[in-house]
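As practice, study what follows.
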Amino acid sequence: MKIDGVPFRTIWPAEDGRAVEILDQTLFPHRFEILRLSGMDQAAHAIRVMQVRGAPLIGATTAYGVALAMRVDATDAGLAEACATLLETRPTAVNLHWALERMKAVLAPLPAEARAEAAWAEAAALCDEDVAINAAIGDHGLEIIRAIAAKKPAGEPVRVLTHCNAGWLATVDWGTATAPIYKAHDAGIPVEVWVDETRPRNQGAFLTAWELGRHGVKHKVIVDNAGGHLMQRGLVDMVIVGTDRTTARGDVCNKIGTYLKALAAHDNGVPFYVTLPSPTLDFSVQDGFDIPIESRSGREVTHLAGMTASGAVEEVRLTPEGSEGENPAFDVTPARLVTALITERGVCAATEEGIAGLFPDRAAA
C-alpha cells in the first residue's frame, strides 16, 4: 500500500542485507518511524511490545527473527533457542507458531552452513505469500461488497463497520478485513467505514483510521459502544473483522470487543464477516474456548497516550489512583454468529464442513 504516494510494506529486508526494517506501530498515528531489527532478540522484542502486531505480521516477523538468529548461530541448539524465545512472545496468534514450524521444517534437514541463506529466502517467500493471500481475500470480499452496493440506491455508499486493525499494518500488505474495502474503493464503489476506536490500545483510532485516510477511504472513528446503536438505526450494511486464530469448526478469536459486535449484528440482521487467511486456521483446536487468551498490562486500561496541543506525546491516567485495570486482549466469537468466512480460496460457512471443503489438504493433515 502507499503512504503519501510511496509504496510500503510493513516489514522488508534492509538494503545492506544484514537486518530487516519495520514500521514502529507503537508510535502511530503521531509519528512515522522506520525501525531496524538487527538480531533475533530485537525481533522478539518488537513482537512482544507490539511494534509489530496483527497475526500475519507477527508470523512474518517471527520468520525473519529465525533468519536473523541463523546469521549468529545456525547449529541445532541455536535454532532451538531462537524458536523457544520467539514462541514465548505472544500466545494467542497461531501464525507465530505456524511460522516457527515452517521455518524449522525447512532448516532442520540442512547442514548448519546452509541455514542462514535458506532462512532468509524462506522468510521472504512467507512474506510474498502473505501479500498474495490478502490480495485474494480482497478479491473475494469485493464481490460481497459489490452485491450489497447493487441493492442500494445509486451513489449511496456501502457502510462497513470494522474492529481493531486488520488492515495492511497488521499484515505484510493489503490487510485482511480492509483488503475488500480497498479493492472496492479502488474499483469506484462508494464505501464508508465506521472505525471502532478499539480500547484499550486504540488500534482502530490510531492505525485503521490512519491507513484508511492515507488511502483516501472515507471513514469516521466511533467509540466502541456505538456499533450496536448504528446497527439499530440501519446505518451499517456489513461488519468485517479479522481473526488471530480460527478453530476447525469456525469459532473466531479476535481483538477484545469482537464478540459484542457479533451479538449486535446478529440481533439486527447485519451480516458479520470474518476475513481468514489460511495460516490463521488452527485445525488442532475445535472449541474456541480452548484458545489461550493473552492478558496484557492493566496500565493499558488505566492510562492513555495522546498528542497535546504543543505537539508532545504524553501519557495520562484515566482512572482513580489505586483502581487496577484488567486487560484480556482477545475474545471468542462462536461460529453461530459468523455469517461467513472470507478466505484466499473463497467464501465458506463458519462450520467444520465449510472450512474443510475449502481446505481439505489442511483438514486431513
Notes: The longest helix spans residues 112-150. The mean pLDDT is 96. The two ends are 34 Å apart (CA to CA). The longest strand covers residues 191-196.
